[in-house]
Specification:
By secondary structure, the protein is an alpha+beta fold. The chain has a single domain, classed as 2-Layer Sandwich (YaeB-like fold). The protein has four helices and five strands; from the N terminus they run E-H-H-H-E-E-E-E-H. The chain has a five-stranded mixed sheet, sandwiched between helices.
Length: about 90
């Protein structure tokens, strides 16, 4: 699977708070490959969510493209915040 990153996502990887949380491309790609929860309510954008640490989850917004996966953005979120919303929709 080939991963492509938007300029926004590439720039965000350099932010001090992201570096401090040790969020990198490997964690982003792992979240996409093996998410704990997936939100498809905004198709074609998919949001994959996976535990980052005790307090935070990593949310990754991406699209499937011809060559593989295009990472649009990512963000840390309080654990359970988005997961519970997705589970309520089901």
């Amino acid at each position: 699977m080939q991963f492509e990153y938007t300029i926004h996502a590439e720039d965000k990887l350099k932010l001090p708070e992201i570096v401090k949380l040790r969020i990198n491309k490997a964690k982003i790609e792992q979240t996409i490959k093996a998410p704990a929860t997936v939100d498809k309510s905004e198709l074609p954008v998919i949001i994959a969510i996976r535990k980052l640490n005790k307090e935070l989850s990593l949310c990754v917004a991406y699209k499937k493209v011809e060559k593989g996966i295009k990472v649009i953005t990512f963000y840390p979120a309080e654990r359970g915040r988005y997961e519970s919303k997705i589970l309520q929709k089901r």
